[in-house]
Every structure is written in C-alpha cells, then in structure tokens.
Amino acid sequence: MKVYFIGAGPGAPDLITLRGANLLGKAGMVLYAGSLVPTAMLQHCRADAELLDTATLDLEQQQACYQRAKESDCDVARLHSGDPAIYGATAEQMRRLEALDIAYEIVPGVSSFTAAAAMVQSELTKPEVSQTVILTRVSGRASAVPEAEAIAKLAEHRATMCIFLSGPHLKKIVTDLRLHYPADTPVKLVYRATWPEQKIYEGTLATVLAETKRGSWNLTTMMLVGAALGDGQQVESSLYSKEFTHLFRVVKKEKKTPKKKTEEKVAIE
C-alpha cells in the first residue's frame, strides 16, 4: 500500500491536478481536512472509499488510520488544501510513515496564493518592479513564525508579499508593512479564492483598514501586497521582443542593400 499526499488546490473541485483526481478515484481510504477542503472535492473519490474528516483527528489518530490501511493493504489519499509543500503539516506525517515503513508520494497542487493572484488578474512579478515573491504568515497558536521572519523585517525588501491567514490580523500587518512600503502600495485581499463564497477587496495600504470592516475578513484570507500589483511602472519583458534571441528563437537579420555608386564614382571608373 501507499499513502498519497495530494494537493487539493484552493477550493474549486476542478482545480485539482489530473494526477490528484485519478489517485483519488483509486484510493480505498481518503483523509481530508474538512475545514479547508470543500466536500465538492470528494466527487473525485470512488463510491466505496472510506472518507475520514481529519478536522477532528489528532496526529496519533491519523497515524492509526495509516496503520489500519497498511494492515488491509489499502492505498490512502491524504487531501491537503492548496499545495502540500506550503503550510501543509505534512513533514510530521511523513516521519511517522517512515517509522511505520509505509511508502508515500507527494502530488503537488495549486496554491491559494497563485489562485488569489488569478482571481484579481494580477501578475506577482514585473520587470524592474519586483522579481521576488515572499510567502509568509503571522504567528498563530499552532506554530510561531521565527522572529527573523517577522513581516516588519521581510517588508524591508519591498518585494511582492503573499500573506496567508491574514484576515484577523490586518491592523498589525498593515502597521508593519507601512514601516517600509509607501502608503499608495497596492493591496488585494482574497477570501477563499475560487470557493462559491469568495470575496475580494482591492485598495492600498493607506485605504485598506478604513475600507474593510473589522472582523469581516476571516482566517482563510490571502493578502497580496506590492508595487507589482499596480498599474504604475510598466516595463515589458524582453522575452518576447522581436529583437531578443535565445535557444528557441533566432532573430533574422535583414540583409543590407548595397549602396548605388554615385555618378561621380562611376565617372572616375
């Protein structure tokens, strides 16, 4: 048997990868985070699969499920929201699977930060504006953010930032960002990107607190901030320029037409 850690994507059931959906359709046991993965995603599961919502299970109880699946030689699909590599709490599960001598595989998914950027139709990187994307979050009860990675310190780079679970902490986040970002820096909030209840706010660091109601943006809110989100400096990449050559595209140089001899030169000749 094998355990498959599958990225369920941001929410919309058709944003799971083909590989993930195919594996869901084969697994006899499916563990999913019910608080983050919509039940609509379970449409990809086979009809007789055992479905277990891990929202009520601690790590040891989840380990017991893996052990039971091993004893019955049953493949397990472990559904995580977004991509398992980002805030997925998968490392501790993998360590336990290794101790149980259970094979596992990771199937990547669409992260909520890329889904949020798609929903607001923004590119996170722009030439000569920002070529760096910082993914971060604020400290929570489950795990703290290292002091060296505090938002106030990361903001020094003034790169594009994607701040997970930002909803309840907007005032503190904006205060920290304003230490380094200009007041007119674009801000976009996306609550539950691609879910039916999705909502979006677009403004700036100067307006976001006044224009959003305190407590109206819940935990699963992605905050995008940075100059690249705006319509200001618009420098186009050279990648598709007709003058730019690379391994797959060679620019054909125009042949120069020979200059006609002047009457004076002809006379001399």
State the main characteristics.
10 strands; transferase; alpha/beta; 2 domains; Methyltransferase, Cobalt-precorrin-4 Transmethylase, Domain 2; Precorrin-4/cobalt-precorrin-4 C11-methyltransferase; Uropor_MeTrfase_CS; single chain; Cobalt-precorrin-4 Transmethylase, domain 1; methyltransferase; 269 residues; Cbl_synth_CobM/CibF
Helix/strand/pairing category: alpha/beta
- Span from first to last CA? 91 Å
CATH class of the largest domain: Alpha Beta
Q: In percent, how helical is the residue content?
A: 10-25%
The CATH homologous superfamily of the largest domain: Tetrapyrrole methylase, C-terminal domain
Report the total helices. Answer: 8
Query: What low-confidence regions span 5 or more consecutive residues with pLDDT below 50?
Result: none
CATH topology of the largest domain: Methyltransferase, Cobalt-precorrin-4 Transmethylase, Domain 2
The general outline is globular
* Biggest sheet layout: 5 strands, parallel
The pLDDT mean sits at 90
Structural topology:
Elements: E1 2-7, H1 18-24, E2 29-32, E3 50-53, H2 59-71, E4 76-80, H3 91-99, E5 103-107, H4 112-119, E6 133-137, H5 151-154, E7 160-164, H6 170-177, E8 186-191, E9 199-204, H7 208-211, E10 221-225, H8 263-268
